[in-house]
TrEMBL record:
<keyword id="KW-0560">Oxidoreductase</keyword>
<dbReference type="GO" id="GO:0050661">
    <property type="term" value="F:NADP binding"/>
</dbReference>
<protein>
    <submittedName>
        <fullName>NADPH2 dehydrogenase</fullName>
    </submittedName>
</protein>
<dbReference type="InterPro" id="IPR044152">
    <property type="entry name" value="YqjM-like"/>
</dbReference>
<dbReference type="GO" id="GO:0010181">
    <property type="term" value="F:FMN binding"/>
</dbReference>
<dbReference type="InterPro" id="IPR001155">
    <property type="entry name" value="OxRdtase_FMN_N"/>
</dbReference>
<feature type="domain" description="NADH:flavin oxidoreductase/NADH oxidase N-terminal">
    <location>
        <begin position="6"/>
        <end position="339"/>
    </location>
</feature>
<dbReference type="GO" id="GO:0003959">
    <property type="term" value="F:NADPH dehydrogenase activity"/>
</dbReference>
<dbReference type="Pfam" id="PF00724">
    <property type="entry name" value="Oxidored_FMN"/>
</dbReference>
<keyword id="KW-0285">Flavoprotein</keyword>
<keyword id="KW-0288">FMN</keyword>
<keyword id="KW-0521">NADP</keyword>
<dbReference type="InterPro" id="IPR013785">
    <property type="entry name" value="Aldolase_TIM"/>
</dbReference>
């Protein structure tokens, strides 16, 4: 039997992923002043130990006010860079996974509470900005509509964060353009009511996100991959949809993006999302077919068999697993077992994997 696609390597520029399993970015709300703590070292280390091809570090603010919460990671000063450097070094020590980081600005969804505190606007938050001055929902403060100077500062934040990521030893950047955060707020007609060159037509709504892509591509070395995460639909009347997402994907492909992770939703609180097994796969399939981009599928892909079927069906080239990895940090082992693949095991854990003992 030929090797399952899930365990075949894949190259992105100068980076070769040992397999197609990725840990999806997942906020831990456990940073202090943007700095990674011991929690991050042990959490990401445990996930890396079972050998996924890539671990993506959670949404990381490129400026302090762009963090989703006061407990989110940042990469905007010397202290946060030093903490990130320590985290990345620990991951490289544990395993062979490529380490990506999701660079983000939360826009009007910044200054929130931790999810386990309720996730709404934090009582001790800070002023936010967005494409337009429309609040996320009832009880949320209205953001400021970004000026040209604000946009320059955000773009410069992405560039400097990329430079810090490079010094920290990160292998790939994943730009957060999904889930109703700042770039998505520019893309969607529901949140972008601007009348300047950043609002109105699709070309105008894509302008700021594509400016960030171009700036990052220039700041990030040519031999290192730059990925992006998008929401392919708002699941809301009058919102951003898959037809616009395809055009956006063609544009960022031409601007040098190497892979796209296809998610959905997050823009408005009252979206009607038909959640179910593999519910975002059709969006990945269409983006992949119409752009030729290396495409990652995500969202309720439960098992290694489901992941392999997603790849066999031509819906995607890579798979990201979120909650499955929180539930079982050895998700990659389980997938390998189900697909009859023998994975290298850290020697410290080989007693748990007698099948993989040398000579067994
Ligand atoms: C997430 N998700 C998420 N997405 C993202 O782009 N950046 C992030 O930082 C986070 N943070 C986050 C935290 C937690 C605790 C969860 C559960 C999820 C979404 C995540 O990456 C993924 O897309 C979804 O969880 C769907 O995949 P699963 O969990 O069904 O495999």
């Amino acid at each position: 039997m030929s090797q399952p696609i899930l365990f075949q390597p894949l190259s992105l520029r100068g980076l070769t992923l040992s397999n197609r399993v990725g840990v999806a970015p997942m906020c831990q709300y456990s940073a202090r002043d943007g700095q990674a703590q011991d929690w991050h070292v042990q959490h990401y280390g445990a996930l890396a130990a079972s050998g996924p091809g890539m671990v993506t570090i959670e949404a990381t603010g490129v400026v302090p006010e762009g963090r989703i919460s006061a407990y989110c990671l940042g990469l905007y000063d010397e202290a946060s860079e030093a903490a990130m450097t320590r985290l990345v070094a620990s991951l490289k020590h544990v395993g062979t996974s490529a380490v990506a980081i999701q660079l983000a600005h939360a826009g009007r969804k910044a200054a929130a509470m931790r999810s386990w505190d309720g996730g709404g606007p934090a009582p001790d938050g800070w002023p936010t900005l967005s494409a337009s001055d429309l609040a996320f929902g009832p009880g949320w403060p209205a953001p400021k509509a970004a000026t040209a100077d604000d946009l320059d500062r955000v773009t410069e934040g992405f560039v400097q964060a990329a430079q810090r990521a490079l010094r920290a030893g990160i292998d790939a950047i994943e730009l957060h353009s999904a889930h109703g955060y700042l770039l998505h707020q520019f893309l969607s007609p529901l949140t972008n009511r601007r009348t300047d060159r950043y609002g109105g037509s699709l070309d105008n709504r894509m302008r700021f996100p594509l400016e960030v892509v171009a700036a990052l591509r220039q700041a990030w070395p040519a031999d290192k991959p730059l990925g992006i995460r998008i929401s392919a639909t708002d699941w809301a009347e009058g919102g951003w949809d898959i037809d616009e997402a395809v055009i956006y994907a063609q544009a960022f492909r031409d601007a040098g993006i190497d892979y796209v992770c296809v998610s959905t939703g997050g823009l408005v609180p009252d979206a009607k999302v038909p959640v179910g097994p593999g519910y975002q796969r059709p969006f990945a399939r269409r983006i992949r077919a119409e752009t030729g981009l290396v495409t990652r599928a995500v969202g309720l892909i439960a098992s290694g068999l489901d992941a392999e079927a997603t790849l066999q069906d031509g819906d995607a080239d890579l798979i990201a697993i979120g909650r499955g990895f929180l539930d079982d940090p050895r998700w990659t082992w389980r997938a390998a077992e189900a697909l009859g693949v023998e994975l290298a095991t850290p020697p410290q854990y080989i007693a748990a994997r007698p099948r993989f003992w040398p000579g067994a």
